[in-house]
Amino acid sequence: MIGSIQLAIAAFQLKLDHFTKSANRQEQNELNSFYALGEAIRTLEYALAETVSFVGQTNQRAPNPRLALLWEEASGTIRNIRDGADLADLTFEKNLYWRNPEFYQGQSENKLHRISLDNVLVQLRRLRSKYEKVQNKISE
Questions:
Q1: How many angstroms separate the CA atoms of 113 and 125, rounded?
Q2: What's the pLDDT at 16?
Q3: Are 34 and 135 within 8 A, CB to CB?
Q4: Per residue, what are the HEC states of the chain?
Q5: What is the C-alpha to C-alpha distance for residues 4 and 26, in angstroms, rounded to an integer?
Q6: Per-residue confidence (pLDDT) for residue 18, from 0 to 100
Q7: What angle do CA 32, 35, 39 make, to 5 degrees?
Q8: Would you state the pLDDT for residue 53?
Q9: What residues of the chain score a pLDDT lower than 70?
Q10: What span, in angstroms and rounded, lies between the C-alpha atoms of 133 and 37?
Q11: For residue 41, what are the contacts with CB-CB under 8 A and spacing of at least 6?
């Protein structure tokens, strides 16, 4: 009889552990998402700020390995976030632009708008909005 009760308690504990671990796993996934979004925003903001600073100092569109590296890094961190593939592609394209700006001469206006600083700012706002939603969800 005692053995049956112990088995029943053990089974109940296993079910309880299953639900507890599931909730903890979901919380951990949300935290990981939150941290990944924060890192993506940080690298995107830095690449954007450095680019704006460089463009404001010169009107030249010569290759700039430093800016290319910053945009490549932003692309890599953005690729780690959920639904970040399109923005990661855009930032990788910015990397390519700063490696060889002459390649983009004569490109269509639509193609150039995609990698424009204005469009990157719009995408950054969207990313920040997503970050705030995850932050509010975690804070609840």
A1: 17
A2: 47
A3: yes
A4: CHHHHHHHHHHHHHHHHHHHHHHHHHHHHHHHHHHHHHHHHHHHHHHHHHHHHHHHHCCCCCCCHHHHHHHHHHHHHHCCCCCCHHHHHHHHHHHHHHHCHHHHCCCCHHHHHHCCHHHHHHHHHHHHHHHHHHHHHHHC
A5: 33
A6: 47
A7: 135
A8: 92
A9: 1-25
A10: 11
A11: 124, 127, 128, 131
Query: What is the pTM (predicted TM-score) of this model?
Result: 0.78
Rounded to the nearest 10°, the torsion over CA 114, 118, 122, 123 is 50
Q: How many CA atoms lie within 13 A of 50 on its CB side?
A: 18
Q: How far apart are CA 97 and CA 100, in angstroms?
A: 5
Of residues 76, 63, 69, 77, the one with CA closest to residue 50: 69
How far apart are alpha carbons 111 and 123 in whole angstroms?
A: 16
Which are the contacts of 61, defined by CB distance < 8 A and separation ≥ 6?
A: 101, 102
pLDDT of residue 10: 55
| Rounded Cα distance, 110 and 103, in Å | 15
